[in-house]
């Protein structure tokens, strides 16, 4: 579906804008701007889940269960 594709592209672009806040240092940039970008990411994610008829809460709970007890490499 073209709408899902467009929303997925927009989600990626917004996520990149979040990354820009950390581009030149490990420090967080302007908290208000970061908050706005995170809200954009969340809104696109919710729109995708809604249109794709995905219960995002259930998907998150399933993913948490899969990852429970998983070892993450520490570098």
What does this structure look like?
- This protein has a single domain, classed as Orthogonal Bundle (Helix Hairpins).
- 69% of the residues lie in helices and 0% in strands.
- It contains three helices and no strands.
- The protein has helices at 2-20, 31-51, 56-67.
- Helix 1 (2-20) packs antiparallel against helix 2.
- It is flat, with a radius of gyration of 15 Å.
- The model has no long low-confidence stretch (mean pLDDT 90).
List descriptors.
single chain, 75 residues, mainly alpha, Helix Hairpins
Shape: flat
Question: What ranges have pLDDT less than 50 throughout 5 or more consecutive residues?
Answer: none
Query: Radius of gyration in whole Å, from Cα?
Result: 15 Å
CATH superfamily: MazG-like
Helical segment tally? 3
Estimate what percentage of residues fall within beta strands. Answer: under 5%
Number of domains: 1
Distance between the termini: 40 Å
Average pLDDT figure = 90
| H/E element order | HHH
What CATH architecture do you see? Answer: Orthogonal Bundle
Largest sheet: none
What level of helicity do the residues show? 55-70%
The structural class is: mainly alpha
* Secondary structure tally: strands: 0
CATH topology: Helix Hairpins
The first-level CATH class is given as Mainly Alpha
């Amino acid at each position: 579906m073209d709408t899902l594709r467009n929303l997925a592209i927009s989600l990626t672009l917004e996520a990149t804008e979040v990354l820009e806040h950390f581009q030149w240092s490990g420090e967080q940039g302007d908290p208000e701007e970061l908050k706005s970008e995170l809200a954009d990411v969340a809104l696109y994610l919710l729109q995708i889940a809604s249109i794709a008829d995905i219960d995002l809460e259930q998907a998150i709970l399933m993913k948490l269960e899969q990852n429970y007890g998983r070892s993450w490499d520490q570098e």
